Amino acid sequence: MNFEEHAGKAVLRGAGLPVPQGRVCHSPEEAAETARAIGPVVVKAQVPTGKRGKSGGVKLVDTPEAAADAARAILGMDINGHKVGKVLVEEKAGIAREFYAAVLLDTANRSPLVLFSTEGGMEIEEVAASRPDALKRLNVDSTKGFSEADAKALIQGLDLGDAADQVAAMLAGLYKVWEQRDAELVEVNPLALLSDGRVVALDCKLTVDDSSLYRQTDIAPQGAEEPMTALEKRGKDAGLKYIELDGNVGVLANGAGLTMTTMDVIQRFGGRPANFLEIGGEAYTKGTEALSLVLSNPGVKALVVNFCGAFARTDVMAQGVINAWKELKPTLPVFFSIHGTGEEEAIRLVRQELGIEPFDLMEDAVRHAVEAAQ
């Protein structure tokens, strides 16, 4: 789950980390009232995506009237598919230096990774690509944690002057937030040294692991909902995990892992998956709605049905698809791969009821589907 800037900053503030004074506003009048109380401000679009400044979603103003005008211009904007419904109005900071700081999961090394750079306020990918030495990295032993002493060792030699202790405290605090909030990413860009000597998080990107939200009940309601297509909303309403993609090969598989594997194999053979949709667990009882979702994507030219049963019985899942097929009567080519518990009965059902011969290997089913979709 992604959190908009204001919600991410609220988490930082709750952890005792310094952020600017500000308020979320839903109208030009609220923006003007906030600016009147604070003084010169920055008006920022609140959407869970980047490049807001390049899209015109960030404006610096000096008066309440200008704050109202800025909010009026930003509210209702579309930024990367997100409609702006609120703005963050916060104090304008006198910036002396801009840094970059982040904590994330390094999947390659299976450990937390702390990042810091003195070149903040710009795309960190550009810094990493053009000047990799400018980005300090430290993989953390999660059993030992990351302390201010560790942070000071990471930033040693970077000529941070009197700001070094504050930066170290911020890095240690960000790691604590990352750990305690089950985060996938905590990123501050820029982390700013202000002209008055304070080090403050001027932005915050927070992403929390969806599977841990039951432990984060105090912040989960503040998470941003991703925009959904009409088909994705229909899938959610039906209790199905469906993600619409721009490919031409539809996928029906049981379990998220098998679904992702099937999608990978489609790409391996030069095809493009049209969807993510798992019908494992109780979802196999929704075969008609699941098949209808996949077929409702006009880009789908062929379909792969891939079942692998362990505890779940493939013959039961196959019967659900067969019933759906007979009800919906699609005409596009479909290719089955069935293995695991109940596979002999499942293969017999598909053969007898649909007149289709399942493939022995998943790769063959996928390859034929990719060819048929061309």
UniProtKB/TrEMBL annotation:
Record has Hydrolase as a keyword: no
PROSITE patterns linked to this entry: ATP_GRASP (PS50975), SUCCINYL_COA_LIG_3 (PS01217)
Domain ATP-grasp: residue ranges: 9-217
EC id: 6.2.1.5
Keyword Metal-binding carried by entry: yes
Gene3D superfamilies (UniProt xref): ATP-grasp fold, A domain, ATP-grasp fold, B domain, Succinyl-CoA synthetase domains
Transmembrane parts of this sequence: none
Keywords annotated in UniProt: ATP-binding, Ligase, Magnesium, Metal-binding, Nucleotide-binding, Tricarboxylic acid cycle
InterPro entries in alphabetical order: ATP-grasp, ATP-grasp_succ-CoA_synth-type, ATP_grasp_subdomain_1, Succ-CoA_synthase_bsu_CS, SUCC_ACL_C, Succ_CoA_ligase-like_bsu, Succinyl-CoA_synth-like
MF terms in GO: succinate-CoA ligase (ADP-forming) activity
PANTHER family in the record: SUCCINATE--COA LIGASE [GDP-FORMING] SUBUNIT BETA, MITOCHONDRIAL, SUCCINYL-COA SYNTHETASE BETA CHAIN
Protein's recorded name: ADP-forming succinate--CoA ligase subunit beta
